[in-house]
Write the structure tokens for this entry.
Amino acid sequence: MQRRAPRAHPCCVTARPDGGGPAPDDATARVLARATVSAVEALGGYAGGVYLRSESAELLRMAVVTGLPGPLFRPWWRMQVNRPYPVAEAHRSGQSVHLADEEAAMRRFPQLMAGLPFTFASLYEPVVAGRERFGVLFVLRPATPGVPVGAADRERLRACADGLAAELAALTAARGVPVRWDGDPVDVTPPHPPPGGGAREAVDRLAQAVLSVDREGRIGFVNAAALDLLAAGAPPPRGRMLWEALPWLGHPAYEDHFRGVFLSPVPVLFPARRGPGPGGDWVAVGLYPGPDGVTVTIGSTEEPVYAPGTAARPDPALGPPADRASALYRPVALAIALTEAVTARQVSAVVTQELLPAFGGRQLAIYVLNERHLHLAWETGFPQGFLDRFDGVSLDVRLPGVETLTSGRPLFFESMGHLARAYPGIPLDADVGARAFLPLIASGRPVGSCILGFDTPRGFSPEERTVLTALAGLIGQALERARRYDSEAALARGLQSALLPHRLPVLEHVDTVGRYLPGSLGMDVGGDWYDVIATRAGLLALVIGDVQGHGVAAAATMGQLRSAVRAFALSGNTPDEVVRMTNELLIDLDPGQFASCCYIELDPASGRALAVRAGHPQPLLRRPGGRTEVLDLPGGVVLGIDGGGDYPVTALHLERGAVLALYTDGLVETPGTDIDEGIERLRAALARARPSPLTETADRLVAEAGSAADRPDDIALLLAARTDGPRRAPERPRNG
């Protein structure tokens, strides 16, 4: 891709004409503007911007933007840090996100493409200085299908983000408080190039209207035919927003076309009604994007065969155009997000983050049905304790939240007065506002009810009622699925808790500590296990294993394997015999799963050990002086694959003060990175651990991996240390 030469002109920072937020911080805005323009030009992009942390730790706000007309992208001005979008992912993980084309974006972030289904590339770089995460710098540019973002471009964007982080850190140091942003975004407008000489005369001869707008949507050129489209006495068009000069082009039915050409280089043609009402004539609109803006052509055409009335006469109850765009986009994002929500709490959080902003709501409550009573599962925005009086109400009580479920009909009240008249004596949390009560029904079965609250009176158009009713069905399906999940998860957690050791044995000259942490995505129980077994002649067997998969089946298989290993070890078998017989047992059971395992038999008195490994990550050994190494144990295949598998034995020696670490891959594996990098991080962390109680060392090792919000796998860790100290009180393992 050919890169444009950097512009020598200084960029211009201007507040948005639509306003609505606090006044921008000029010093911060200038710093962000320079970084944004530099990044866009360095990457050969056509648009970009910066998201910054707000006063709410859970919310990012778009602070500056260039190359895009901001009002068209209002639904993306605010970004929750825990949502599955590339901006949030980059900020949350501290890792770059590079999406070379729409296929890569759809594969990783389907919710992004649901709202912006266009052909473009996007790159996101976290802005970090030390431990302070300021936000994310992003650049949009033409897609390169099948060609990933190159190393040079990655380095350029990283350099821009590092420079911005340094400047924001300096501002933070000067002010004594971290840089935050809580207003609307501001425009970064590069100077406009002068219009061509003889081109004007040529274009003025056309009967077709021609306008040129820059990347912010401001008009820079109009031909004579375009001037005729403007109302008599209208101000000069140059410098005005396109939708101000020709307001009929600002209709929400056309907004997606404009979003498309500002994100993708593909031209768009569509019919539009010029002027309000059915009396307006139809015109053909062409949009031709380029690196510096969009050429708009408007010519005559016949009325299209399909011209829905809502395309010409929007329902005023839907609010201003920006809110209508959000209302069109958010339900799609909600539908996709609900497919990813697993627990009832996740379903409720998704509804709060996606449904309320779409319709301007401020309050939300979700009740679930249990044995003919409605129980409050989630609330936000209501006065504290107000909804407690309705928790556990039976289905024979006359309340709107009950009747919407028993009748299956949604109830809409355009004011609190309407609600009070329909249900005399009902307690109200406010005197002013509006309420919608939606039945949550899945597969014909009642699941619960949902309450949406609004701070001001408002109407509910037929379109809104239809969309809300449909979304209530999706919410009901998601809650029913979550209920089944919660039941299975409770069973699996109970099973797993019963199968993992509750107390580790204590012998002279050795301390052992175990830790287990369930995964945070999907079914939160799995097949990881560990055990410490006091065998014959005062020996100690240290065992760790990982059954493939998650859920009840994996936990059940884990319990069978742990019992088998314990039985074989207590029968006096050698380490290789224990692993070999466990492998044969798993093949005979045929659960359709395989497992990895590491088994080490230790003599606490002498420190001699025999180790056997079956497809499991290599253990770590920390020497008394602090030198820590990854052991190189030869191993056999995972259990449950080959009935004739061979499992070699390796002799080890643990000096006094040495620490042996056995772990499962959940502690070292991160999606998108090599597992060897994770093992090296764990080795370095164990090496840094000062001589301290083994419990503190175990807690530190799992803290970093366990704090990840989207950790997909379970974590099991078993530490064993040779000591000279007296016998200590046994520690209960911390499982969960």
